């Protein structure tokens, strides 16, 4: 592949949060969320080159506003760049796309312009961009860690403390049913009190029995307690349960994610298919990384 | 694959340390090393089942003593187990095999006997086993993190602080020239003073310019300063340099690891081949994980 010399490319995976608790802090590096989610092999692949005039971000060929990515870029370089993102996850549906876009951009910039930053420094810059734009809840820390990351203490490294639910690679089946405004949830003080209380007890339960099955069950209970699920999300979660699988809602999206043992995989897939088109991802022991041209 | 019900299987990758500094501490969880290395796709694949009479560890079909793995097992279960390890890395040559054997055993035990531990808890148990047996210098933390892990603060999570050199997947070519006794190095107080002083300044240099090229150069300087390299290791390192690649010594082994840009890859491989059989691994964005049967 022929590419101009000051170009960089990187991939960052999507991250689906099952439950969470928000933590405020005057220091943006310590602000964030605790909770648990899954990191998937779908994500955002980004190529950056030096821009002309002003910074422009393209997503799957279309020019986009990308506030978080632009905040991230301003922290790292003082010249315009051209950012070309290709996504294999839905945008704005609870797949951590804004963090994946920013994180892949950070790695690509580091590579293209020899910024000489470590992974922790890149993650910190993305974390600050996410927190100041209110677009993320700890997705970047998950994407940086891989697998089934547990966020035990909020914040970017070295402030945040991460752990993992030990797990082999497994499939998650996802359907997107509509849109859910992150802002409308995060700005509702009463709802956030319920979420934080439910999120705190969910984390305690998960740490007492850190398995994927328990993560799925606790996530479903969290969704039910907080009343975040639309009727169709509830119906889809129940249909998966009836088919012998486990499902919950992606935080924050009008999205259902499901998994199952091998024996009921086809039934779970078919149950979800009656609601919307199903996309299947793998949860693996991998994380973000620059990509060689 | 048919397997009895209380069986577990896991993989842990090898880890080659390029430079390090030892840190003592009365708390074994805070004792360990700082430094940097590479995590490779070769490692140890372990199957555990309930044992009969006493715990037995097999490596590639032969019964082995495996002190570190036995210490680990005693921390996690109070009944005998049968451990069957298959290795794709050399043993006792600076590839972190003792940590990989113990870490894969820890994950497999957790899975087989539903121990209900998180990854951090499993890593802590392996870390304590390594430190108390004097067999490891932080390999387990690297294997748990993947890629090109920088150990900035010693100890297992959450005490230790890890970072990464951002890097795409790349190949490392390895040759094993003989044996190096870890104990003879770690018990030589004068040598350890030199190692620790060189390791401290190596880490500072790496953090100032965290790239794979700089890691390889700093590692080579560390080897030269400490005088750990045998004549043949020195010759192999020089031969790789003359072939347009970068090489250093695996800590602690009579082993050389090398990498290069695409253009000189064949020359580097050929240069190494004149000393011993070359094995090539990939450094990827992956880490330890249980394996589904």
TrEMBL record, chains A, B:
Kindly report, in one word, the top-level EC class recorded for this enzyme: transferase
Reactions catalysed according to its record: (R)-pantoate + ATP = (R)-4-phosphopantoate + ADP + H(+)
Q: What are its GO biological-process terms? A: coenzyme A biosynthetic process
Question: Which InterPro entries is this protein grouped with?
Answer: GHMP_kinase_N_dom, PoK, Ribosomal_Su5_D2-typ_SF, Ribsml_uS5_D2-typ_fold_subgr
Which intervals hold domain GHMP kinase N-terminal?
A: 76-147
Biological or metabolic pathway of the protein:
Cofactor biosynthesis; coenzyme A biosynthesis
Q: What is its EC number?
A: 2.7.1.169
Q: Which GO terms describe its molecular function?
A: ATP binding; kinase activity
Where do transmembrane segments lie in this chain?
none
Its biological purpose: Phosphorylates (R)-pantoate to form (R)-4-phosphopantoate in the CoA biosynthesis pathway.
Family in the record:
Belongs to the GHMP kinase family. PoK subfamily.
* HAMAP family recorded: Pantoate_kinase
Q: Which PANTHER family match?
A: PANTOATE KINASE (PTHR42282:SF1), PANTOATE KINASE-RELATED (PTHR42282)
Q: State the protein's name.
A: Pantoate kinase
Source organism per entry reads Methanococcoides vulcani
């Amino acid at each position: 592949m022929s590419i101009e010399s000051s170009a960089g490319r990187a991939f960052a995976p999507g991250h689906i949060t099952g439950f969470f608790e928000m933590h405020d802090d005057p220091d943006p590096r310590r602000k964030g969320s605790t909770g648990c989610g899954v990191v998937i092999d779908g994500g955002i692949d980004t190529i950056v080159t030096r821009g002309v005039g002003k910074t422009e971000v393209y997503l799957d060929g279309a020019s986009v506003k990308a506030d978080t990515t632009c905040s991230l870029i301003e922290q790292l370089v003082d010249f315009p760049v051209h950012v070309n993102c290709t996504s294999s996850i839905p945008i704005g549906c609870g797949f951590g796309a804004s963090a994946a876009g920013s994180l892949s951009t950070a790695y690509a910039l580091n590579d293209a312009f020899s910024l000489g930053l470590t992974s922790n420094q890149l993650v910190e810059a993305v974390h600050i961009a996410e927190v100041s734009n209110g677009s993320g809840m700890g997705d970047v820390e998950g994407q940086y860690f891989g697998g089934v990351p547990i966020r035990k203490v909020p914040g970017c490294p070295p402030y945040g403390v991460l752990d993992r639910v030990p797990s082999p690679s497994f499939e998650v089946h996802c359907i997107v049913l509509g849109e859910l405004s992150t802002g409308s949830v995060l700005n509702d003080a009463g709802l956030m009190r319920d979420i934080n209380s439910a999120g705190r007890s969910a984390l305690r339960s998960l740490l007492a029995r850190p398995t994927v099955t328990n993560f799925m069950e606790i996530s479903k209970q969290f969704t039910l307690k907080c009343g975040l699920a639309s009727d169709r999300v509830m119906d889809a979660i129940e249909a998966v349960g009836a088919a012998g699988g486990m499902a919950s809602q992606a935080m924050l999206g009008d999205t259902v994610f499901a998994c199952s043992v091998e024996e009921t995989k086809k039934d779970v897939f078919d149950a979800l298919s009656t609601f919307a088109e199903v996309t299947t991802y793998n949860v693996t022991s991998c994380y973000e990384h620059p990509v060689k041209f």
